[in-house]
Specification:
Layout: H1 2-32, H2 34-58, H3 64-80, H4 92-99, H5 103-120, H6 128-148
Length: 151
């Protein structure tokens, strides 16, 4: 039993030193790489944007669909280090496929962006249940894109 205690006393500081040095190296790498910083915070930023959309929904419908589009555009922009507004229904394939998204996911994103634009500008309306579905679809697309655009 004393041998185990001795091993713990000898190994614990070494393990702590290794963990600390890895963490410091990651911080240095993040500090120097803007694209890596954006990718690292993409999911958290997307959740924050989706929460803003939810707040817009609770405050009335105005701006809700645009907030969903901003969440999706911002996520893709962060993941691929592109300006957020570059993702549109017509550019989805050109942007997402080279990043690793398959044709089915790319088509779903393009359709969603078209639908949200139509709803935002009053060309299509939806009740509270439809808006909740739109929010859920946006979350699902972001989750699927996170897996596809991995990096």
């Amino acid at each position: 039993m004393p041998l185990v205690g001795l091993l713990v006393v000898l190994v614990a500081p070494l393990a702590s030193l290794l963990a600390t040095s890895r963490l410091a190296a990651r911080r240095r790498r993040l500090r120097g790489d803007h694209a890596l910083q954006r990718r690292a915070r993409a999911s958290r930023a997307a959740r924050e944007r989706l929460a803003e959309a939810e707040a817009a929904l609770r405050g009335g419908e105005r701006g809700f669909h645009a907030a969903l589009v901003r969440a999706l555009q911002g996520f893709v922009g962060d993941k691929l280090d592109l300006p957020a507004g570059r993702l549109t229904a017509s550019t989805a394939a050109d942007i997402l496929r080279p990043g690793g998204a398959d044709a089915g996911l790319t088509d779903r994103v393009a359709r969603f962006l078209e639908e949200m634009e139509a709803k935002e500008f009053g060309l299509a309306s939806g009740d509270a249940e439809a808006r909740a579905r739109d929010h859920a679809v946006a979350e699902e697309l972001i989750r699927d894109l996170d897996r596809s655009l991995g990096r």
